[in-house]
Design brief:
By secondary structure, the protein is α/β, with parallel strands linked by helices. It is built from 13 helices and 15 strands. The chain binds nicotinamide-adenine-dinucleotide.
Length: about 325
């Protein structure tokens, strides 16, 4: 059996904490160092990751002896630089989505990954959810025949804070990218998009020239059609549904109630609900990292990888452009 894989965890915020707990539970992984410019944040995450030490400088983490892999969980506008530094230091890279805020920066970072020949996986955890993974298996087995339509809803319970929005790239690049990735994963490549966006409730989105509500129409290369609805607010909690409709039926991926329980009263009955991405995709966050480390120790294809990172961002950039310019955009025209 090979030695434990030594890891640096970069970024100790919301998603960094989730990954820290999963990393600490893997028997073949050792988090050596946690890095965050806010040292108190790194200190808070250190026990979750069972890490030896903390630093406020990523270079120090990359230079730490024996580190084989990095898990990047920092704000989106820092990913590209950290990916390049990690690749040059010959580390295997798991990075949260997306690679960068625009395509030119994404191309450059992924070029450095290629030049250094290091493994790379992007954090599209939904692909590892048991529902989405099974949908993919059935579609690949041809159980739906030809796919004609895809419909997806992606709504968060509440808008993120202004600080987060500022560095996020906007709704299409930050939030809708998950639905675009899943549309590609299940339905194949996309030819053209047409997007509308609106500010319906979030003053921060308005001030930052972002939107809080969007609908994107998709035309797939196969000729299938799709529609994606996103909102930054759903008072009842996280709302993620994907429907694939084809000649032999349809597949719907939608979470059952969180607890297998109905509470009956004079008001009728109540079910509970996954309120946020952390609990809805709790297992998927674990499984995506398991896959990354399994491939690292046993060899295998790192997926979703560079091309998935690039193509999902291309769709997000096309949707952003379509919303801003008010006409459909061909994906191939966005570089
Ligand atoms: N896969 C998902 O579903 C999912 C969900 C949430 C966030 N994300 C992605 O994860 C990333 C982080 O989001 P978050 O919600 O955890 O943000 P966050 O603001 O809660 O945490 C980011 C942390 O990174 C730290 N940081 C900033 N610059 C750094 C640097 N150069 N080196 C090390 N640490 C640095 C910050 O101090 C902060 O503690 C974003 O890119 C976001 O798109 C993905």
């Amino acid at each position: 059996m090979r030695d434990q894989i030594k890891v640096a965890l970069i970024g100790a915020g919301r998603i960094g904490q989730e990954h820290a707990k999963n990393l600490a539970s893997f028997p073949n992984v050792e988090v050596v160092i946690v890095c965050d410019p806010i040292i108190a944040a790194a200190e808070r995450v250190r026990p979750l990751a069972r890490a030896g030490r903390v630093t406020d400088k990523a270079e120090e983490a990359f230079a730490e002896s024996g580190i084989e892999a990095v898990v990047i969980c920092t704000p989106t506008d820092t990913h590209a630089e950290l990916i390049e530094a990690a690749a040059r230091a010959k580390k295997a890279i798991f990075c949260e989505k997306p690679v960068a805020l625009d395509l030119p920066r994404t191309h450059r970072a992924l070029q450095v990954v290629r030049e250094n020949g290091v493994p790379f996986q992007i954090g599209f955890q939904r692909r590892f959810d048991s529902g989405y993974a099974e949908a993919k298996r059935r579609l690949d087995a041809g159980e739906l025949g030809r796919i004609d339509q895809i419909r997806a809803v992606g709504r968060d319970p509440a808008p993120p804070p202004r600080e987060y929005l500022l560095k996020s790239g906007g709704l299409f690049i930050d939030q809708a990218i998950h639905d675009f990735d899943i549309a590609r994963f299940l339905g194949g490549e996309i030819e053209e998009v047409s997007a509308w966006g609106a500010v319906r409730f979030d003053e921060n989105a308005a001030a930052l020239n972002d939107v809080d509500t969007a609908t994107t129409l998709l035309r797939f290369k196969s000729g299938a059609l799709g529609v994606i609805e996103n909102s930054r607010r759903a008072v009842y909690g996280y709302d993620i549904v994907t429907e694939v409709f084809g000649e032999a039926g349809k597949i719907v991926v939608q979470a059952e109630p969180k607890t297998p329980l109905r509470h009956y009263s004079q008001k009728g009955y109540q079910l509970d609900h996954y309120f946020f991405f952390m609990d809805r995709f709790h297992e998927a966050f674990r499984t995506e990292l398991e896959s990354f480390f399994r491939n690292l120790s046993e060899g295998g294809e790192f997926s979703p990888g560079s091309s998935d990172a690039l193509e999902s961002l291309r769709i997000s950039a096309a949707a952003t452009k379509s919303w801003k310019e008010g006409h459909p955009i061909k994906i191939a025209d966005v570089n």
